[in-house]
């Protein structure tokens, strides 16, 4: 079992143990701002998935399976943020409401504090950023178990996450692109942008970023897959001071290259008062979408009242009169199942 509580896991350029511990304290404080507050109170609707093959990432697993789940149902993998449980993120984002409405199975991989003191997925750790190892392999074994147990349609497996969960969504889409039909990254970071915690802190702020070509190369090299590629929905607040919005641009640039799409979007329009950009293929199929939530800070965009409303307000679960959960589900075609 990993133990990322060890300060030696987070060493920077300091030369003394005291300097190292000071660095760790500073990084941990900043990382807590990046990830979730997790103060939502909720009735836990999720059940444990106790057995799912080997677990090199030492993660827990939760599931939500609606009553009378139809045969060949879709599966959505939902990744929480740090200092937050799977149940708290479900309550905030409202994914189990979507599952009940459309007949969708849900899988919630869940971090343990013994692995990361902030309860965040370790997307910036080399051992957790590659195919066939660490947390990605644990998540894939969970996926395989749910697919087997519930007769999931393998052509309709999707993944989404916020912040740390968004960054791990980038990892999963990069390392197992043949598994996922689509992904949604909320306030996340591009794959391959950091290999250490200090690098991750810089990338969060939009500093010291790798070049677009380097990010494209790292994404292409993350697996032997040659396409087709998952569709992608990217959400970011224009006022996000925790994960700079330049990360959304970098994510889109990575995936445009793999989809062989032009830099200029195919269309730009407004949805619920916010700009949406779309990149489509030659047949008009929407492959990448981006929502820039004007003025919003760091968190998941919510609409909690009225038509097409889901979830509830909490730390980094932000009422901005647009439901990212609703529109992500629609982008993936879940509302037509």
Short description:
The chain has about 325 residues and is an alpha/beta fold. The chain is built from nine helices and twelve strands. A hairpin with a 2-residue loop joins strand 8 and strand 9 (about 275-280).
Query: Overall pLDDT, averaged?
Result: 88
Distance from N terminus to C terminus (CA atoms, Å) equals 40 Å
Q: Which assembly state applies to the chains in this document?
A: single chain
Specify the structural class.
Answer: alpha/beta
DSSP summary: helix tally: 9
Low-confidence stretches: 3-42
Given the C-alpha coordinates, what overall shape results?
Answer: globular
Q: How do the strands of the widest beta sheet line up side by side?
A: 1-2-4-3-5-6-7-10-9-8
Biggest pleated sheet: 10 strands, mixed
Order of helices and strands: HEEEHHEHEHEHHEHEEEEEH
Description:
The protein has 337 residues and is of the alpha/beta class. It has helices at residues 17-34, 86-93, 95-102, 134-150, 164-175, 197-204, 212-220, 246-259, 324-331, and strands spanning 47-48, 60-64, 75-79, 105-110, 157-162, 182-186, 231-237, 267-271, 274-280, 286-293, 300-302, 317-319. Helix 1 crosses helix 6 and helix 7 (212-220) packs across helix 8 (246-259). The termini are far apart.
């Amino acid at each position: 079992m990993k133990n990322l509580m060890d300060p030696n896991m987070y060493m920077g350029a300091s030369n003394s143990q005291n300097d190292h511990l000071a660095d760790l304290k500073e990084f941990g404080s900043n990382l807590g701002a990046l990830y979730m507050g997790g103060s939502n109170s909720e009735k836990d609707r999720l059940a444990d998935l106790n057995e799912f093959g080997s677990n090199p990432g030492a993660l827990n697993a939760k599931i939500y399976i609606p009553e009378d789940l139809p045969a060949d149902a879709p599966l959505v993998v939902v990744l929480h943020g740090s200092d937050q449980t799977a149940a708290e993120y479900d309550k905030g984002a409202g994914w189990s409401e979507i599952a009940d409405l459309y007949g969708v199975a849900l899988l919630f991989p869940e971090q343990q504090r013994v692995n990361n003191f902030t309860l965040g997925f370790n997307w910036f750790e080399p051992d957790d950023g590659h195919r066939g190892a660490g947390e990605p392999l644990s998540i894939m074994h969970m996926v395989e178990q749910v697919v087997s147990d519930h007769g999931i349609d393998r052509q309709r497996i999707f993944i989404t996450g916020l912040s740390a969960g968004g960054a791990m969504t980038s990892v999963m889409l990069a390392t197992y692109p043949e598994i996922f039909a689509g992904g949604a990254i909320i306030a996340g970071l591009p794959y391959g942008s950091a290999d250490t915690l200090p690098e991750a802190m810089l990338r969060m702020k939009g500093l010291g970023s790798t070049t677009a070509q380097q990010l494209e190369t790292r994404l292409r090299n993350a697996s032997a897959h040659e396409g087709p590629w998952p569709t992608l929905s990217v959400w970011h607040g224009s006022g996000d001071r925790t994960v700079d919005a330049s990360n959304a641009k970098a994510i889109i640039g990575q995936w445009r290259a793999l989809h062989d799409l032009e830099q200029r979007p195919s269309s730009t329009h407004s949805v619920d008062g916010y700009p949406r950009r779309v990149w489509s293929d030659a047949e008009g199929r929407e492959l990448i979408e981006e929502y820039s939530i004007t003025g919003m800070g760091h968190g998941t965009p919510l609409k909690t009242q009225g038509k097409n409303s889901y979830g509830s307000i909490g730390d980094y679960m932000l009422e901005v009169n647009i439901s990212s959960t609703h529109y992500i589900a629609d982008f993936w075609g879940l509302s037509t199942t």
